[in-house]
Design a protein that fits this description.
Helix content is 39%, strand content 15%. The strands form two sheets. A seven-stranded mixed sheet has the order 1-7-6-5-4-2-3, sandwiched between helices. The protein has a five-stranded mixed sheet with strand order 8-9-12-11-10. Helix 7 links the parallel strand 4 and strand 5. Bound molecules: pyridoxal-5'-phosphate (PLP).
């Protein structure tokens, strides 16, 4: 579908390819391989002279539809889908870097991403330097002659720190490096990193793209040239998205825009309410004027998104008490679901960091993260009211 359509329309219709049966909803192709009409056609498919599916580790029509829809939303030339967000991050590094290369990453990134960079890629000779997500000069200082990739999440988890994507892309490009943005918290409905100069966009489709907590999935997007290496890794190593999960995510994307609008509206209302609570020391939400990067956030994002973090004055005890007092909210580390989730980062998602690392990252023991869902804001507030009072 051409880019002249609005993004909301592309979310519903881009990428759809109909089979000979002209089905209205996209078909799910549950097949591991594809048949060729002749030996010559088989040969042409394998050399790449003739486009088309070969084997489901490489491509599957349902997966391709999901990739094409997401590419249309991010404004990317190409999307490569993966079995999970972590597989997408691994593939980005494996596809674009080699032993001896250097990575500069934000200090405030997903916990498993830190483990991947430190404990796995570190063993294969890729070194990572961590810097502040909000201070571009630290990125500039961290650059070495062998720096290949910048990696950032904006807004970050759990503090919703906002990075200046344009500034980071300029520093990366001046250093001969690429900028990859994990766009999980915003999704293309709220933020399109490629517009601000990023080279690569990464998604955990497990979160808002599915949006209903059903399946795992991931994606890497960028230019055709950059995606070639990422696709080669997929094809060879096989962290492939299943047709079923691709179909679920394809359907999820059809409601992405209305969901993100509703998540954001609820989150803004909750953030304002939390700010007025005496037990709350501080609230982090990019939509609030009190957020340290509020102005930048409003330039890069169309809304503040669905994640709110706040610090309780009573520390860990107060945080656990609040979490345990809820009756409706789900106590789970997941996010991007229609159901509101509540997490204590210090003892769950960020528990593998040392307390010193947590302090540097600003993750205090009183910090609570809420991924605001689509229930009535009245009920969400009421569920928190008991514990906060
Ligand atoms: C969840 C998440 C990931 C990892 O995605 P999976 O699908 O769980 O592998 C990566 N980045 C961010 C920001 C996430 O929230």
């Amino acid at each position: 579908m051409s880019e002249q359509y609005d993004l909301d329309t592309l979310a519903v219709r881009a990428g759809t390819v109909r089979s000979q049966f002209n089905e209205h909803s996209e078909a799910m192709f549950l097949t591991s391989s594809f048949v060729f009409s002749s030996a010559a056609e088989a040969a042409a498919r394998f050399t790449g002279e003739q486009p088309g599916p070969i084997y489901a580790r490489f491509t599957n029509p349902t997966v391709s539809m999901m990739e094409d829809r997401l590419a249309a939303l991010e404004g990317a030339e190409r999307c490569v889908a993966f079995a999970s967000g972590m597989a997408a991050i691994l593939a980005t590094v494996m596809g674009l870097m080699k032993a001896g290369d250097h990575l500069v990453a934000s200090r405030s990134i997903f916990g498993s991403t830190v483990q991947l960079f430190n404990n796995i890629l570190g063993r294969f000779g890729i070194e990572t330097t961590y810097v502040s997500p909000t201070d571009p000069s630290e990125w500039h200082t961290a650059v070495k002659p062998n720096t290949k990739l910048f990696f950032v999440e904006s807004p970050s988890n759990p503090l919703t720190e906002v990075s200046d994507i344009r500034a980071l892309s300029e520093i990366a490009h001046a250093s001969g490096a690429w900028l990859a943005v994990d766009n999980c918290f915003c999704s293309p409905a709220l933020q399109k990193p490629l517009v601000f100069g990023a080279d690569i966009v990464i998604h955990s489709a497990t979160k808002y793209l599915d949006g209903q907590g059903r399946v795992l999935g991931g994606a890497v997007l960028g230019s055709k040239a950059l995606m070639e290496g990422v696709y080669t890794f997929l094809r060879t190593a096989g962290p492939t998205l299943s047709a079923f999960n691709a179909w679920v995510i394809l359907k999820g994307m059809e409601t992405l825009f209305i969901r993100m609008e509703a998540h954001s509206k609820n989150a803004m209302a909750l953030a304002l309410w939390l700010e007025s609570q005496p037990a709350v020391a501080r609230v982090w939400y990019p939509g609030l004027p009190s957020h340290p990067q509020h102005e930048l956030a409003m330039k890069q994002q169309s809304t503040g998104g669905g994640i709110v973090a706040f610090e309780l004055k009573g520390g860990k005890d107060a945080a656990w008490k609040l979490i345990d007092s809820t009756k409706m909210l789900s106590i789970t580390a997941n996010l991007g679901d229609t159901k509101t989730t509540i997490t204590h980062p210090a003892t769950t998602t960020h528990s593998r960091m040392t307390s010193e690392q947590r302090t540097t990252a600003g993750i205090s023991d009183g910090l609570v993260r809420i991924a605001v869902g689509l229930e009535s804001i009245v009920d969400i507030k009421a569920d928190l009211q008991r514990g906060i009072a």
